[in-house]
Amino acid sequence: MKKSFYLYVLTFRGGDWSDQKVRFAEEMFHEHNFPKQSTNFEELSTYIESFATDNLTTEAFDELWALYVEQG
């Protein structure tokens, strides 16, 4: 079974803060209502669009989603 998007993105925590993927991961980690079990693009995209912040951006999400899909 494929791991959730949340678990995949957590692997970016602790990196270089200049990387938007790292900032997204840190912000996501502190967002208690983030859909942690989801592997569904629509569910995650809707959440990000609804609760976007300076670090939880749609641009970072799109980049991370592409990487998530690539890693299969």
From TrEMBL:
Signal peptide from the UniProt entry: none
Source organism, top-level taxon: Bacteria
Residues that span the membrane, as ranges: none
Pfam families xrefs: YozE_SAM_like
Residue ranges occupied by any YozE SAM-like domain in the UniProt entry: 4-69
NCBIfam families, per database record: PRK13672.1
Protein name per its UniProtKB record: YozE family protein
Taxonomy of the source species: Bacteria, Bacillati, Bacillota, Bacilli, Bacillales
